[in-house]
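Example record

One chain of 317 residues, shown exactly as stored in the release files.
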Amino acid sequence: MVLAALEWPILERIPIVGDLAISPHGIGIAAGFLLGAWLMIRRAQLRGLGVEVEDVSQAVQDVLFRVAIGVIVGARLFYVVNHLDVYARDPLQILMIWHGGLTLLGGIAGGVIAALPLVRTRGYRTALLMDSAAVGFTAGLAVGRLGDLAIGDHIGAPAAGFPLAWRCTGNWWVAATNSFGYVPPQSYPLQAAVAPTQGCFAEAVYQTALFDVLAGALLFAVLLMLERRPRFDGFFVTVFVYGYGLSRLATDFLREDRRYLALTGSQWAVLATLAALTAWLLLRRPWKRAERAWRPPFTQPPVQEPTDRGEPIDARP
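Predicted structure tokens for this chain:
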């Protein structure tokens, strides 16, 4: 048997008091969101929002409050839709979010949809605001997925011999007693037809959450380098969507999950998003709208005044 190049034990829960416990998965999500929010606020303070705002930081926090709600609802809703047969038998389980069952792409979509009405009402430039969020998306993705690695989530098919394959060496959580304790990996083979997406098995598998960590870190570095030159509004979020979308499209082929016409629900969502973004780029041609483009280095938000058409422009000399 060829051992995996990577191996570590998982930790599904951290007991607090009695039956109360927290999951490293939740800690990763919270840490990723907070880091992403901080990076977004910093960039919004430099780029502005497309209209005159007295306090950019507070304005973005108002948006992020709605994003946080949308992320939770969207992540849960996308997961439920992808597992309708399970929840149809007991619809009350839909509300039991503490049992797990969240989807990253659903969370991103839910956050954007929840914040969009406020963004439009206040007249913020959507593409400009999304650009400020792009770097935060990548950093939040990389940090958030560390929680998935801790609990052994998003495992794929058997991958013995693959350099980045992962083998679980045990579980430091005894569910029966709600306490710490070492449980050796399950010895039975991972069956591709019925494999769960979380657990501890004796054989080496593809760890798709690790691929997301690497993709997020790489995109983060790329976006930081791209910020050094002038860019049109929407450029940075476009790079993020194409970069992560294509990465997720590829790695989901290695993941054990439900498939619809040979693709996972996440892959279909990625294809729809890429198609919509491509259509927006072809129709709007944002690179020809340079009046609000990112011109580093800004030390203050750009002063913006309305044109005769009612559109804000950069009035900086």
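Notes: The longest strand covers residues 166-171.
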